[in-house]
């Protein structure tokens, strides 16, 4: 399996621009998670989906952030408008339903820099 | 709410030294506990796990024991290698809520 795929790997944009991050989970996994990693706040859960339905979006920082999962093989995280404080590494992870230990498989991350 | 506390890094060791990275947690009920590792430029990988009290997770020479009485899950390795240099994250989750709660991470640097 190719693992969780994220694109782009690096994104540099200017304040006020729209940013879209993409994720393809592992085939057959029906949970998908978006995390943000910063030096100040560490790893934070933003939102997660089960069977394409958002289950918990309490970590989404504000209305500028939105996430969608139109089908089982694709999800997007959009920031509009972007701000310098959104600079971080954004990780996508997926997880199967089976198993009692909730292992998550992480993608390589997207490093976002907002100037 | 749930929380995970890890010792601050960086931890710098010489090759073949003994490693301990402390992790304690606060949570209701009986969460599952994990150690994830992040190598430079990569995403996180599951290193080991434990799902109930007194369980010992082990992988690649690393071990951690789920201690309910001290709410701890310390990571240990008897002899570290340069290739173990990475950031290590302790985490927990509940069966009813799939999301992971992570500690702040501990950077390990192993010198030859």
Notes on the structure:
The complex is a heterodimer of chains A (115) and B (112). Chain A is mainly β. Chain A is built from no helices and 11 strands. Chain A has strands spanning 5-7, 10-13, 19-24, 31-38, 42-50, 53-56, 65-71, 74-79, 88-95, 105-106, 110-114. The radius of gyration of chain A is 13 Å and the shape is globular. The mean pLDDT of chain A is 93. With 112 residues, chain B is mostly beta strands. The mean pLDDT of chain B is 93.
Which descriptors would you attach to this protein?
heterodimer; A: 115 residues; mainly beta; 4-stranded antiparallel beta sheet; 0% helix; globular; B: 112 residues; 6-stranded mixed beta sheet
Largest beta sheet of chain A, briefly?
7 strands, mixed
Oligomeric assembly: heterodimer
State the total count of DSSP E strands of chain A: 11
- Report the mean per-residue pLDDT of chain A as an integer: 93
Structural class of chain B: mainly beta
Largest sheet geometry of chain B: 6 strands, mixed
Count of separate DSSP helical elements of chain B: 0
End-to-end gap of chain B: 41 Å
């Amino acid at each position: 399996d190719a693992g969780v795929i994220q694109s782009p790997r690096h994104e540099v944009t200017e304040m006020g621009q729209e940013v879209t991050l993409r994720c393809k989970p592992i085939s057959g996994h029906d949970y998908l998670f978006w995390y943000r990693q910063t030096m100040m706040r560490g790893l934070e859960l933003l939102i997660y989906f089960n069977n394409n339905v958002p289950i918990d979006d309490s970590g989404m920082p504000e209305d500028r952030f939105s996430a969608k999962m139109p089908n089982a093989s694709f999800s997007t995280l959009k920031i509009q408008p972007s701000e310098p404080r959104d600079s971080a590494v954004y990780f996508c992870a997926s997880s199967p339903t089976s198993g009692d230990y909730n292992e998550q498989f992480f993608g390589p991350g997207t490093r976002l820099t907002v100037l | 709410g749930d929380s995970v506390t890890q010792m601050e890094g960086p931890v710098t060791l010489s090759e073949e030294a003994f490693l301990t990275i402390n992790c304690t947690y606060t949570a209701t009920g009986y969460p599952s506990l994990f150690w994830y590792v992040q190598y430079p430029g990569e995403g996180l990988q599951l290193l080991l796990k434990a799902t109930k009290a007194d369980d010992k997770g082990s992988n690649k020479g690393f071990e951690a024991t789920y201690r309910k009485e001290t709410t701890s899950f310390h990571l240990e390795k008897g002899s570290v290698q340069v290739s173990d240099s990475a950031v290590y994250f302790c985490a927990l989750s509940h069966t009813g809520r799939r999301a992971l709660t992570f500690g702040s991470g501990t950077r390990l640097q192993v010198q030859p």
